[in-house]
Design brief:
Blueprint (H helix, E strand, L loop, with lengths): L7 E4 L1 H5 L9 H13 L4 E5 L5 H10 L7 E7 L2 H9 L4 E5 L4 H6 L5 H17 L3 E7 L6 H14 L3 E6 L6 H14 L3 E6 L6 H10 L4 E4 L13 H12 L10 H12 L16 E2 L2 H9 L17 E2 L7 H10 L6 H14 L9 H15 L1
Parallel strand pairs: 1-2, 1-8, 2-3, 3-4, 4-5, 5-6, 6-7, 7-8, 9-10
Length: 378
């Protein structure tokens, strides 16, 4: 399957990402992350929720100083006053969050479908009369009846919406099911669609790629995959998957992915897992003897791409699963003359003491172990 070349990545780290429980960015932090996203080449950013007022608005006002450089979206509840306030701040683009499933209509907003269709139309027309770009949600598409989803899509398109966000709000769809929703909407409407997939079953990236294959144009990401509950599609994973599997350039400078990940991890006070795809510290780390042997001959043996492409760094780790080759390589680089017998003894010592050194045995410790091994073998 192919993906159209004019797809648009939109980052929502500053909105859905910050809605992760316990996360609260300061004004300065929020502006710094925004600037880092722009510097990395992100052109569409959902920057926050103006209706929260206070420091949120102070940050958004500073962010809006760059509204001629990047498309900045303000998120709104399905309340006209929210939209009026967001536009008064100078936003050129607004998103309107509205649910479409019966369970959300009944228990989240206590309204019915007629209210939804009328409210959506009225709010879209109001914002379009102000010359705004208007995005609107179909929240909880996983539990929305297909026929009503089609009716809703046709209604918001007729009202003038620029984009319909298909939100798998609780992440209950697999890729085939998400594609079905995208395809059903495309049959009923020509409106641009946006993928908004949550990661409750670990399928956010896969579902987003599937949605883009099915014809969606926009898609949401968050740095480090943060977001409500299990999070959102990870920015770095989406950028690299599009490039590797579809030869699609998202416009993001891949060399900044690791740095951006570390910045947001520090701001959110949640460390990046060593196994986090693309940016984790173990992604380009090699310990086992077979792996290291191959890597020392050709880096393509055990890496899908060079670490420099994503701003990462390759590491050769000395540990329990290491072989003689890496020991000799490290010691040779430090000018240590080795013998096969001493290396064999050193390897035994490495395996015996590896548990004392989480993350790998440091070079200075390896030197001591080799000196000890020389004494044993002499």
């Amino acid at each position: 399957m192919s993906i159209q070349k004019n797809i648009i990545l939109e980052d929502t780290t500053l909105r859905d990402g910050e809605q992760a429980p316990g996360i609260a960015f300061s004004k300065e932090t929020k502006v710094n992350i925004f600037n880092s996203l722009v510097e990395a080449g992100v052109k569409w950013i959902e920057a926050g929720i103006p209706a929260m007022k206070g420091d949120e608005v102070l940050a958004l006002k500073e962010i809006l100083e760059r509204k001629d450089e990047v498309n900045i979206i303000g998120w709104n509840r399905g309340i006209l006053e929210d939209i009026k306030y967001t536009l008064s701040l100078g936003f050129k683009a607004v998103h309107i969050g509205l649910p479409t499933s019966n369970i959300h209509l009944k228990h989240s907003v206590s309204k019915d479908r007629n209210w939804l269709l009328t409210t959506a139309s009225d709010m879209i027309k109001f914002a379009k009369d102000k010359d705004a770009f208007v995005s609107i949600s179909a929240e909880d598409v996983g539990r929305t009846e297909m026929s009503f989803l089609q009716e809703y899509a046709a209604t918001v398109e007729q009202a003038g919406a620029d984009r319909l966000r298909l939100s798998d709000t609780i992440g209950i769809l697999n890729s085939q099911q998400y594609v079905q929703r995208v395809s059903i909407v495309r049959q009923a409407s020509s409106i641009d669609l946006q993928c908004h997939c949550h990661n409750d079953f670990g399928l956010a990236v896969a579902n987003t790629l599937a949605g883009l294959e099915a014809g969606a144009r926009y898609f949401h990401v968050c740095v480090n995959g943060m977001g409500e509950r299990a999070g959102m599609p990870d920015l770095a994973q989406m950028v690299m998957a599009l490039q590797h599997f579809y030869q699609v350039d998202s416009g993001v400078d891949t060399r900044q992915l690791t740095r951006l990940s570390h910045e947001v991890a520090q701001a959110s006070q949640h460390a990046v897992s060593p196994w986090q795809p693309i940016v984790g510290s173990n992604v380009f780390a090699h310990e086992s003897g077979i792996h290291v042997n191959g890597m020392l001959k050709d880096s393509k043996t055990f890496e899908p791409f060079e670490p420099e492409i994503v701003g990462g760094q390759r590491r050769m780790v000395v540990g329990k699963h290491s072989g003689r080759t890496i020991l000799q390589n490290i010691l040779d680089l430090d000018g240590v003359q080795t013998t096969p017998e001493a290396l064999e003894h050193c390897l035994a010592l490495v395996r015996k003491t590896a548990g004392e050194h989480p993350g790998g045995i440091p070079v200075h410790v390896l030197h001591k172990l080799y000196q000890q091994a020389e004494g044993t073998s002499s």
